[in-house]
Amino acid sequence: MHPTLQTLFNQIEDRREAILNSFRSLSEEQLNQRPRDGQWSAAEVLNHLVTAERLSVAYIQKKVQGLSELPRTGWWDDFKMGLLIISQRMPGLKFKAPRRVVENTTRMTSLAEIEVAWKAVREDLKMLLESLPEQESDRKIYRHPAVGYLNIRHALIFFREHLIHHAPQLRALLKS
After folding, report:
1. If you placed Cys at 113, which of 68, 108, 133, 158 could pair as Cys (CB 3.0 to 4.6 Å)?
2. Domain containing residue 76
3. Distance between CA atoms of 25 and 163, rounded to whole angstroms?
4. pLDDT at position 70, please?
């Protein structure tokens, strides 16, 4: 795996493990308790994160088939990625989950189920990253719903930023 991709993969893996570890002391009931009507429980947030990554990895796996035909990213895509990072880190800024993610979210209620599913997604992602030729890593292989087509490095950065974006919500759920 390209060293930059390995670093980014390690970052998202460390965050995944930290998130899961922070919820180990909760019962299944606590994990599924909504703080207020209309707000997600911790299990729902975790399901959302797993589903978003699962669908993204599946999309990337399809795009790999025609990798050499895909256009390359450039400075404009790096700029859009910078804006996406800023948007993910702005406190209180909320985004509606993409319809495809909402419609395909699996309802797992136990932390053990969530952990198994998330680990499987990450194993698929790791295999994909290990098979990706380094010289093709700037191909527009990932489609983000807000900023469009990005490369695999951008995708991993978004995965990290998505976890960071949901961190305050998850911390608040731990306190409630």
Report:
1. 108
2. 3-21+40-175
3. 20
4. 96
Query: Is residue 160 one of the residues assigned to a domain?
Result: yes
Q: d(Cα 101, Cα 132) in Å, to the nearest integer?
A: 25
Q: CATH code at 122? A: 1.20.120
> What string of DSSP letters covers 14-45?
HHHHHHHHHTTTS-HHHHT--SSTTSPPHHHH
Number of structural domains the chain divides into: 1
Tokens, residue 158: 């978004």
pLDDT digits (tens, 9 = 90+) for 19-61: 999 999 999 999 999 988 888 999 999 999 999 999 999 999 9
Residue 1's contacts (CB-CB under 8 Å, 6 or more residues apart) are 9, 126, 129, 130, 132
Q: Report pLDDT for 90.
A: 82
Q: Tell me whether residue 167 is in a domain.
A: yes
Intervals of the chain under pLDDT 70: none
Length of the chain: 176
Does any domain span residue 170?
yes
Contact 142, 154 (CB under 8 A): yes
Neighbours of 78 (CB within 10 A): 13
